[in-house]
Amino acid sequence: MRCHKSHTCSRRVLPIALLFVLLLFSASGVLAAEIVVVKSGGIKPYNEALEGFKSAYDCVITEINLSDSGRQDVTGKIAELAPDAVLAIGTDAFRAVRSIKDLPVFYTMMLPSESLGSSSKNVSGVSMLLSPELYLDTIAGIFPSARRVGLIYDPRNMGGFVREAMKVAQAKGVELIVKEANRSRDVPAVIDMLRDRIDVFWMLPDPTIINGETVNYLLLFSFQNNIPILTFSNKYVDMGALAALNVNPFDLGVQTGEIARAVLTGKSSRNPVRVDARKASLTINRKVAKKLGIKINDEISQEVENR
Description:
Helix content is 47%, strand content 19%. The chain has 14 helices and 13 strands. The strands form two sheets. A seven-stranded mixed beta sheet has the order 7-6-8-9-10-12-13. Strands 2-1-3-4-5-11 form a six-stranded parallel beta sheet, sandwiched between helices. Helix 8 links the parallel strand 6 (148-153) and strand 7.
């Protein structure tokens, strides 16, 4: 049909065009979830984790940085913003939002003890822990003759992880010599109980066991008894541990973004999704290796960052 009068055509075309625009904006609103990101601070690993999250999930982000906000009423501010979900990056950030029950809460870059202790059905995320199998395979690769691996832990923080590690170690023919400590001040006496009983000490990210004083004592124990330490952070490698298996902050963010996307788009059940980190990098302190008389094989040497 041809329009004989221009104003008649315009009256017909305008509503159709307006309807198209409204439908477009409506569709984009459904697709773009609004997420409030609470960060413990502005340090590089937290920023990398956020970039990883954004790369995995195209959503609208509003940031709250605890170091800038003065730790004001974070949950109240989130309620005002009325987002679809909350992402906590860092332990302090998670502690600030864990009371939220009416929104999905996702976490990353957090102490494993916090995620292991959460029973909330609206909380999902990625632990900074790697699988026990990966840790034990790394120990076998660096120390092929080691058969006795010692660790100290607080059952309240790392009980489930250590039980799984004991099963994996048994399957691999490794003797895991485990000691409990419920208070930081007990750690020196407990580590002394492992003297002459272990080939390697496995340092876990357990807040009861690891602090300034205990780490210094563990490192002293290592040098005095010629026992290497595998830890979870380059910080302790720089202080004197032989090796560290580090998580990748960007990929932690990617993993968390994948979980958030699946949960918020209905591709995953509403049950909590809590997984371990999937990627790691190995760092070795060559000076410590030389001092302890440990030769790093060529295959491992090609895969590590040296200090």
